[in-house]
Write a structure and sequence with these properties.
7 helices, mainly alpha, single chain, 244 residues
């Protein structure tokens, strides 16, 4: 093509036809510009294709991470929800004066503290640090992901407060009555009943027990907000993945 154009240019120059040469020159400029535009278009197409592939991978990785987080958070949430009625029933029995050592043992034999949720944020952190979070074209999804980290941090802080409250509650009875998950041969039933009767009248014990229940309720509510946000994110991720 280049050789052909060169031959035509030389022929026109030898012929001395200025008008035809100008028309040819304009045509050659047009062809060059067209070639540049086509090259830019191809380059943009390739760049968009690469970015789309990166976005698709980011969306799939985020979806896997959020599904894992959903399992972890739901596991802790269901444990807290399950203990709530047991807590309420135990507190009620103390309030009405119906509680005895059997009630104390029934509640304290099983775990009632479950620690903190540790969601995985590896994919999110990698996308943010690399700047590839900008590849996500759905603005709502980017907003929810940005809000996610704040909500999870709030949940973790409240879970930590709940954990510390549980430790404080345990401290109220740990020096007054044996842990019921073990058998103590030097404590008979009468000793245990007397120890619990005294414990149940303790204002500090009651206040810490009620405080733990209240915090457990707060964390359940806070976690529900996080789970709702998580569901929105998963739904948007699935819609975006399906759109590719």
């Amino acid at each position: 093509m280049v050789k052909l154009l060169r031959k035509i240019r030389q022929k026109l120059l030898k012929g001395g036809d200025l008008r035809q040469y100008i028309i040819y020159a304009i045509g050659e400029i047009f062809l060059v510009m067209l070639g540049i535009l086509l090259a830019l278009q191809v380059n943009n197409w390739n760049q968009n294709r690469i970015e789309n592939q990166k976005e698709q991978k980011a969306l799939v990785d985020l979806h896997e991470e959020f599904k894992l987080n959903e399992e972890r958070i739901q596991e802790k949430q269901q444990l807290r929800i399950a203990i709530a009625p047991k807590l309420a029933s135990y507190i009620s029995s103390i309030t009405t004066g119906e509680a005895d050592y059997t009630a104390f043992k029934a509640f304290h034999t099983n775990p009632f503290m479950y620690g903190m949720t540790n969601p995985s944020n590896g994919v999110i952190n990698a996308l943010i640090s690399s700047g590839e979070i900008a590849l996500i074209s759905n603005d709502s999804l980017k907003y929810y992901i940005a809000d996610w980290k704040n909500q999870v941090e709030n949940l973790y802080e409240n879970e930590q407060i709940l954990w510390n409250s549980g430790l404080k509650y345990i401290g109220c009875y740990s020096d007054k009555i044996p842990i019921p998950s073990h058998n103590w041969n030097d404590w008979d039933d009468e000793d245990l009943e007397l120890a619990f009767a005294e414990l149940a009248l303790s204002v500090a014990y009651r206040n810490n027990l009620v405080g733990f229940e209240g915090l457990n309720t707060i964390v359940i509510q806070e976690c529900e907000v996080v789970l709702q946000l998580l569901e929105k994110i998963l739904s948007l991720l699935e819609d975006e993945i399906d759109a590719f």
